[in-house]
Design brief:
With about 300 residues, this protein is of the alpha/beta class. About 35% of the residues lie in helices and about 20% in strands. It contains 10 helices and 14 strands. The strands form 4 sheets. A 7-stranded parallel beta sheet has the order 3-2-1-4-5-7-12, with helices on both faces. Strands 9-8-11 form a 3-stranded mixed beta sheet. A two-stranded parallel ribbon has the order 6-14. Helix 2 runs parallel beside helix 3.
Length: about 300
């Protein structure tokens, strides 16, 4: 029976991954800072380790047992970026990744899937972004560069098969949509800024499916844009979200207001990233939700605007 270790296992993506692997009767070890996992009690197939993974410690002993390591750890970026919080965003990602790599057994075969983000491309305007596109230079881009480099150090261990996953905004029942949809439900939703900027996204089910696909595709390695195959502008996304919730999308948030209210985070949210999943598609992956309308329809199909 395979063993999978997941950092950040109590987060939005982590919860879906834990369920996915438990349904397949894998042994799952989840890591996070909470005292217990909020959804999964410990069982013969699930173990929860409460630890601050930015620090070395006994939690690293569990790395050696894993056949698959999925690194999702990182502080939520959707908070005001004070100097202190920016450091926490950085440390929670880079230090955790370094400690994971340090704990890997040399020459032991292991699948290592480590998160990054489409934010690595910065504000790329109208350029279509495949995995070999030029990288940005703002705060999130620099965090992602160091995050990826820390993960790629696992290749020096000899046995690690490394995949870097550049996430778009993950759509599902929770996560980013739990922040976006209330405004629409109160008839106050709309695009951010001009709405012309490209908005990278992926349905949670396709994200989990893609990770499973990479684990079971022996030749897969390197960098993958984990985004839907049909790019969408932010205005079109807002319209599709409004339609899924049976609400209008006519209340735009001007760019200067977004920056004024959210500071540096707000400026980042106005970036344009027309990322496409070329590496996944070339490897033979097929999306269940290739367009934003089908993705949002599945998520809100049973709830509508209630």
């Amino acid at each position: 029976m395979k063993q999978v270790l997941i950092t950040g296992a109590s987060g939005f993506v982590g919860k879906h991954l834990v369920r996915h692997f438990l349904d397949r009767h894998w042994h799952v070890t989840g890591l996070g800072t909470s005292s217990a996992h909020p959804d999964f009690p410990e069982s013969p197939e699930f173990k929860w380790i409460s630890a601050d993974t930015t620090l070395p410690g006994s939690w690293q002993d569990h790395v050696a047992d894993a056949d698959v390591i999925i690194n999702l750890a990182g502080r939520n970026i959707f908070k005001r970026w004070t100097k202190t919080y920016k450091q926490a965003i950085y440390d929670s990602r880079i230090k955790t990744t370094r400690h994971l790599v340090d704990a890997m057994v040399p020459d032991k075969p292991v699948h290592f899937l480590s998160t990054s983000a489409a934010g690595i491309y910065g504000d790329a305007g109208q350029q279509e972004l495949t995995e070999d596109a030029a990288l940005g230079s703002d705060f999130l881009a620099e965090v992602c560069k160091d995050w990826e480099n820390a993960a790629l150090d696992a290749e020096k261990k000899g046995g690690a098969l490394v995949r870097i996953m550049r996430f778009g905004v993950v759509l599902g029942d929770g996560g980013a949509l739990s922040v976006m949809s209330p405004a629409f439900k109160w008839f106050a939703g709309g695009p951010l800024g001009s709405g012309d900027q490209w908005f990278p996204w992926i349905h949670i089910q396709d994200l989990v499916k893609a990770m499973d696909f990479l684990i079971h595709t022996p030749d897969s390695r390197g960098i993958y844009n984990m985004v839907g195959p049909e790019p969408v502008r932010q205005r079109a996304f807002a319209k599709a979200l409004g339609q899924a919730l049976h609400r209008p999308a006519v209340m735009p948030a001007p760019g200067f207001v977004v920056k004024l209210v959210m500071g540096e985070l707000g400026a980042s949210l106005l970036n344009s990233q027309k990322a496409v999943p070329r590496a996944l598609v070339d490897a033979g992956f097929v999306f269940d939700y290739p367009d934003v309308q089908s993705a949002l329809g599945e998520i809100f199909g049973n709830s509508g605007g209630s």
